[in-house]
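Handout, section B. The chain below has 248 residues.
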Amino acid sequence: MNFKRILLILAGIIVAVLAGLFLYFWLLDRQEQLQGMPPYPLELGSFDTVESTIIDPATLLEDIRSGKKLVLQATTTDKPPFLMPIGWSQNDYLKIAQAYQKAIWQDDPNLWHLYKALFSTTCDNASGKFRDAEFFYYQEVTQGGESLYSVRAIEIHPEYGYLDWGGDTFYPRPKSGGWTEIDLESIAKVPAEQALALADQRGGKDFRNTLNNICNIDVDMWPWGFYRSDWKVLYTGKTSTKIWIPAK
């Protein structure tokens, strides 16, 4: 057996061992999830601290552009009344989320990684502007020698004049590798509103028409949860359909 062949055999063994270790830890993470211990927050209720503030949708974007100080004012009702129809872009919502991260946590939002983004609207308003949005962020920290993720989330509901946030929560860093953050440059090139327009062209509009536009639309990016860095455009009514749109 020549030396070159021996090297190839050794390389194959190393690759097989590494693949086996990755699969083992991946299965361990998924087993924890199935046992009721999800390795990431699934919703705002997953956070140890959840609070809210009133926002004025009529002036909020201009206030942020002008650098006006944001005041946190707790909502006084669980079901705020409808105020006005809203249609904001991905960029609008990202600016609002960043501004409120500074106001709520008093730190630098750029030190946090965005790993899940969701934009929502209704099928009768599929123009590419959204009525709600939510964002999940993480930052790696070390406590007691253990690598953890500090996580936070912001949900923005402008039509009802309020914003929710969750924080003060930690999750173990997955043994099979870290979470995958969203590539902000990619979603700047293919924003959520463009993903919705493309999905409509690729069957979404026809689906909406079969339901007489009585349905909802979620445009979602979650690389770690979906195992892919594409937009998932989900139409949901009496039935549902999803269309994947590459973010590049």
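Note. The radius of gyration is 21 Å. Compare this with the example in section A.
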